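Renewal narrative, Specific Aim 1. Our central claim is that a sequence can be written position by position from structural information alone. The example that follows is taken directly from our test logs and has not been curated for this report. It begins with the structure tokens describing the chain, in the order in which they were read.
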């Protein structure tokens, strides 16, 4: 379950639990049930569902994905130490699980559409889109997709075997590419373990080597294409270029309106492969990266709303020492003398919050290539100067307490609710 920034869980001193925020309340409603407290480490509190009859899973490891090597390091650790368990990776694009035992990948599953077995078989040319649709219509909990494809004569059993291996490798490799989200390593008894469509035995060191290459390549791609949200557009001389058959579907979608993620979804190809092909098209001069098609105003307003909680907290602290008016004047004057005037000029209200519609309007007028990234950076810069200004008006102890709260809230500006 993804965390929410539109509220929080409050543990009262009397032991009662209170949930703040509609978004988080809706998320928790989907997880209704009985839980036991596994304990806490530092500021982490672990809960585990315990309302079924199976033996609870042992939580061997859990945490946050903080870099492009986090999941690779977890898998390497499990391989080196001979751990057996299911590694669950929950990222913004979907969830994946990897069953690891004896230094090998034994099974893999995913909620990402492009990683379903049928999509993998279409992309590899084993079946057509029409054959995929017919198999999906006949699929049921007791009849798996692969079995149906074999029964219909679309693939041989040996081809299904290879497709399942390819699917497992794809899920594994894409899990290692995730740079944000959460992970958990669970160890279940045999009765509670997930039953896969087919048991694999892919040596971890072997699939890790292939995945390391993907991670390194993706880092190179990101130097030219900062994210999957950018929109490729045809270059002026593209019609004079010779384009291979495999790249033509991407060229057809390079209209400045489809992002790379849009292309991946429409062509049923994962983000890595789509990014790789777009980089090749850029290299030969067929496409260029266009500015983001438009500002996501709803997300910008949400981000500013979260930031206003930070700014209001600073202003309220300063107000307790009678310096709120000075703070407003200082902040307003500083904004006018910096590049931030493009986004925040005359937008700071007297009570210490930004005017969200006005900021969004100013941001949209700048035609930034990545407006949300620009806004994110600008808000952090504004917060840094505001905290610096507050430091001269409040006692040191109050400043340190305020800094801890502000840093924690700033880390949540871009997280989905």
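The sequence written for that structure reads:
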């Amino acid at each position: 379950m993804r965390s929410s920034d539109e509220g929080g869980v409050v543990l009262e001193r009397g032991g009662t639990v209170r949930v703040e925020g509609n978004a988080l309340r809706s998320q928790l409603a989907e997880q209704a049930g009985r839980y036991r407290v596994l304990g806490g480490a530092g500021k982490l509190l672990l809960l585990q569902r315990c309302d079924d009859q199976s033996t609870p899973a042992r939580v061997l490891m859990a945490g946050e994905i903080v870099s492009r090597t986090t999941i690779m390091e977890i898998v390497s650790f499990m391989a080196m130490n001979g751990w057996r368990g299911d590694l669950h990776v929950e990222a913004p694009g979907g969830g994946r699980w990897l069953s690891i035992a004896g230094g090998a990948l034994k099974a893999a599953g995913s909620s990402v559409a492009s990683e379903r077995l049928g999509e993998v078989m279409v992309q590899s040319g084993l079946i057509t889109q029409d054959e995929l649709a017919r198999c999906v219509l006949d699929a049921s909990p007791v009849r798996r997709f692969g079995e149906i494809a074999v029964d219909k004569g679309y693939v041989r059993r040996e081809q299904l075997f290879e497709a399942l291996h390819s699917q497992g490798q794809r899920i594994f490799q894409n899990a290692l590419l995730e740079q944000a989200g959460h992970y958990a390593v669970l160890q279940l008894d045999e009765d509670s373990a997930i039953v896969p469509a087919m048991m694999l035995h892919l040596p971890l060191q072997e699939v890790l080597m292939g995945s390391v290459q993907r991670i390194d390549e993706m880092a190179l791609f990101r130097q030219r294409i900062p994210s999957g949200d950018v929109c490729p557009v045809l270059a002026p001389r593209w019609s004079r270029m010779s384009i291979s058959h495999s790249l033509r579907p991407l060229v057809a979608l390079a209209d400045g309106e489809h992002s790379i993620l849009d292309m991946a979804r429409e062509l049923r190809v994962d983000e890595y492969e789509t990014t790789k092909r777009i980089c090749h098209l850029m290299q030969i001069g067929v496409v260029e990266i266009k500015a983001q098609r438009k500002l996501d105003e709803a997300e910008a307003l949400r981000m500013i709303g979260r930031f206003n909680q930070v700014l209001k907290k600073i202003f309220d602290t300063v107000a307790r020492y009678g310096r709120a008016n000075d703070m407003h004047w200082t902040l307003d004057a500083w904004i006018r003398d910096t590049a931030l005037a493009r986004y925040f000029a005359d937008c700071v209200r007297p009570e210490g919050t930004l005017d969200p519609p006005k900021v969004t309007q100013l941001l949209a007028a700048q035609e930034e290539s990545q407006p949300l990234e620009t806004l994110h950076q600008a808000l952090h810069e504004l917060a840094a100067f505001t905290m610096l200004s507050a430091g001269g008006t409040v006692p040191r102890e109050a400043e340190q307490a305020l800094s801890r709260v502000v840093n924690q809230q700033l880390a949540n500006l871009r997280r989905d609710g």
